[in-house]
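Morning, I've got a small favour to ask if you have a moment. You're getting the sequence in one-letter code plus the fold written as tokens. Thanks so much in advance, here it is:

===
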Amino acid sequence: MKVSIVIPTINEADSIRSVLEELQRAFTNSGMKYEIVIVDTDSDDGTPRIAEEMGAKVIKESRRGYGRAYKTGFAAAKGELIATLDADLTYPAECIPDLIHLLEKEELDFISTNRLAEMEKGSMSLMHFIGNKVLTLVCNILFHVDLKDSQSGMWVFRSAILEDLALISDGMSFSEEIKIEAMKKFRGKEVPIKYRKRVGEVKLSSWDDGIENLLFLFKKRFLKEGP
């Protein structure tokens, strides 16, 4: 069984090598076949070159958007299983093989992760933390799911489920949307992970992205474009 690890990037030269080294160490003794798919949005700091030197497959995607990058990456992924994480070293890449074993052992289709369970000091601003709590609460109320962290960007899932997920977001709200869709339609689980302080420039706007994600939840719920 092959695993595709899909990572969106934009100017992640400070961290991408370390992320890929962590992934390679994690999979060296796992016995799993894997590929790393980097979806790069016009980086000008050498990120694509570093990723290619490390053996990753690099796809250029000039259209902006977190969700857009993942859709492009998923379309190119060859694995029966897909794993995701950011390129800034915040997520524990070494946990991916264990998450895959859990997925198989419990016959799940989708696993999301809870960053808020064990955060390294300085890994998330207070505003970002409060925003996550609010968005997760609204997500749970509107869609009758039971999430602790609706905004986490680390997931492991069976690629076959993608054809049944109604994913309309091309932005940051893609993260909450894929969880809503997967948890409502398939066998899903959320597990805690360690969350680390990021390396490199912060690209997330807690206020602007938070408001956008909140409005998206109401749009998806009441315009009948979701489950």
Q: What stands out?
A: The first strand starts at residue 2 and ends at 9. Residues 2-222 form a domain with the Spore Coat Polysaccharide Biosynthesis Protein SpsA; Chain A fold (CATH 3.90.550.10).
